[in-house]
């Protein structure tokens, strides 16, 4: 990897920089397993559902996609809905409540290989941003002790405030590059989700890197990743 060909690295957060995907997956599984059981749905929630319907999507879109896979229709509701309300937003808020409980009680540690790449990029002068569908991104970055590494964070809150479509659209990544003052063609997108590499492929980015944390290398390539690694340390070049 020759980083002197690029001026910016645009990182997804969950599953790329930190293993928060594991916390998210646990929270989604608890929420949907309880919900489906209570409604008497015979097809249980599985890990495959996470990768097929939820991974990388904004939270409420993930809820809607998962419900649609079981033929369940609920009112969309409002982001202010209580976690106890059975609406798309209520279920999303219920999942977020579970996620926050686990994050605060157990904390989070960034992947060692990801930290190594961040150190390398800082040394060679590549600008860095985080682009996450999660509204918890700032809290996760603080918990992992890496918030000061990223002058630009485009998360679910920023996307909502600016009316930016979420992944698999490229808009949040494009906005991050603009905020760094770097052309998208000189920016690298680093993603572990199918919807994320689709977002990178849909934009005019210099390179789309897939990080295989469970989505599958072939699936990431098929949906837009030009390079696939299993650990970000593999991307440390000889600049």
Automatic annotation (TrEMBL):
Keywords in alphabetical order: Carbohydrate metabolism, Hydrolase, Magnesium, Metal-binding
GO molecular function per UniProt: hydrolase activity; metal ion binding
Cofactor(s) needed for function: Mg(2+)
InterPro entries: Beta-PGM-like, HAD-like_sf, HAD-SF_hydro_IA, HAD_sf, PGP-like_dom2
Organism domain of life: Bacteria
Family affiliation: Belongs to the HAD-like hydrolase superfamily. CbbY/CbbZ/Gph/YieH family.
NCBIfam families: HAD-SF-IA-v3
Protein name: HAD-IA family hydrolase
């Amino acid at each position: 990897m020759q980083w002197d060909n690029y001026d910016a690295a645009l990182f997804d957060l969950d599953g790329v920089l930190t293993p928060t995907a594991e916390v998210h997956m646990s929270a989604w599984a608890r929420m949907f397993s309880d919900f489906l059981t209570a409604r008497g749905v015979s097809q249980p929630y599985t890990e495959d559902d996470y990768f097929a319907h939820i991974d990388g999507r904004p939270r409420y879109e993930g809820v809607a996609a998962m419900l649609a896979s079981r033929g369940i229709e609920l009112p969309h509701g409002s982001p202010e809905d209580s976690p106890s309300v059975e609406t798309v937003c209520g279920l999303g808020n219920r999942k977020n409540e579970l996620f926050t409980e686990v994050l605060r009680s157990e904390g989070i540690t960034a992947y060692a290989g990801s930290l190594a790449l961040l150190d390398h990029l800082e040394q060679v002068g590549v600008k860095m941003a985080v682009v996450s569908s999660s509204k918890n991104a700032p809290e996760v970055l603080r918990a992992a002790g890496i918030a000061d590494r990223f002058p630009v964070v485009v998360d679910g809150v920023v996307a909502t405030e600016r009316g930016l479509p979420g992944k698999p659209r490229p808009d949040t990544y494009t906005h991050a590059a603009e905020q760094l003052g770097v052309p998208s063609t000189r920016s690298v997108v680093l993603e572990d989700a199918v919807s994320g590499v689709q977002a990178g492929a849909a934009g005019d980015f210099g390179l789309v890197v897939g990080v295989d944390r469970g989505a599958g290398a072939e699936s990431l390539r098929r949906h837009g990743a030009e390079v696939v690694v299993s650990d970000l340390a593999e991307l440390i070049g000889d600049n």
